[in-house]
Amino acid sequence: MSTKRIAGAEIEKLIQLLAKVPGLGPRSARRAALHLIKKKDQLLTPLASAMADAAEKVQICSVCANVDTQNPCSICTDPRRDSTTIIVVEDVADLWALERAAEMSVRYHILGGTLSPLDGVGPDDLNIKTLVDRIVGGEVKELILAVNATVEGQTTAHYITSQLEDLDVKITRLAHGVPVGGELDYLDEGTLSAALRSRTIF
Amino acid sequence: MSTKRIAGAEIEKLIQLLAKVPGLGPRSARRAALHLIKKKDQLLTPLASAMADAAEKVQICSVCANVDTQNPCSICTDPRRDSTTIIVVEDVADLWALERAAEMSVRYHILGGTLSPLDGVGPDDLNIKTLVDRIVGGEVKELILAVNATVEGQTTAHYITSQLEDLDVKITRLAHGVPVGGELDYLDEGTLSAALRSRTIF
Question: Positions of the zinc fingers (C4-type) (chains A, B) (predicted)?
Answer without folding.
Answer: 61-76
